[in-house]
Amino acid sequence: MTKFYFNIFVLLIFFTAVSTALTTRNDLSVHKIEKRTTCAYNSKRNVLIERNEDKQCSCSLAESIFSNKLKGFFFFAQDECGSTTIAGLFSSGFEVFNSTENITFEIVDSCNRTLYDITYGLNVQFNDDGSTDPFRYTFDEINLDCDDDGILFPQVGKSHYNKRTCDGLRRRDGKNQVACKESGDIFEASDINDFQT
């Protein structure tokens, strides 16, 4: 019986030595991380590329910082497939509301028209002290700069409301914004800025 245990022990040592030797060579490493080349979902496709190849988007970062009535931030991270993860946190500002049921978060253009309603994806949980719990969600339909519809680019005319101009709306110069709305009216908005390192 001791010979059997000894043989098992020697066999385990042998396999450990072989696996260690294989993982120290770069070309045979089982721990090597490779960048994915295909996306699991319907990503932004370039019609000139073959069907089985996805367009590679740049991995980009952006931020939107609230510092007036609301104190908090949104952080945007785009992956190589064009999906954007939006995360954030508010430390104060929501204590002025009697109810938080009618609060929405939207990405708006320079005419304050809704481009994307991100309220239900983020599922922001409000606290009694006017803060929020941290929130995060990955949106496949939103990208930062992967194509012409990226939220880092001005989107006037791309809203599904009024296609051409800001007729009847007060147009502001500048970028798309994240808007915190209460019962449809903007409570506070902040520009979406390319993240500077």
Q: Which descriptors apply to this entry?
A:
197 residues, 4-stranded antiparallel β-sheet, Immunoglobulin-like, single chain, 2 helices, 9 strands, 5-stranded antiparallel β-sheet
Overview of the structural elements:
The structure is a single chain. By secondary structure, this protein is of the alpha+beta class. The chain has a domain of 134 residues: Immunoglobulin-like (Sandwich), CATH 2.60.40. The chain is 14% helix and 27% strand. The protein has a five-stranded antiparallel beta sheet, with no helix packed on it. Strands 5-4-7-8 form a four-stranded antiparallel beta sheet, with no helix packed on it. The longest helix is centred in the N-terminal third of the chain and has 23 residues. The chain is elongated. The termini are far apart.
Question: How is this fold's topology laid out?
Answer:
Elements: H1 2-24, E1 61-67, E2 71-78, E3 84-92, E4 103-108, E5 114-117, H2 119-122, E6 135-139, E7 177-182, E8 185-191, E9 193-194
Antiparallel strand pairs: 1-2, 1-9, 2-3, 3-6, 4-5, 4-7, 7-8
Give the low-confidence spans: 24-35
Strand order of the largest sheet: 6-3-2-1-9
- Separation of termini? 64 Å
Round the Cα radius of gyration to an integer and report it.
24 Å
N to C succession of SSEs: HEEEEEHEEEE
What's the pLDDT, averaged over the residues? 78
Shape call: elongated
Major sheet characteristics = 5 strands, antiparallel
Q: What is the percentage of strand-forming residues? A: 25-35%
Please give the count of helices. Answer: 2
Computed structural class: alpha+beta
Any idea of the CATH class of the domain at 61-194? Mainly Beta
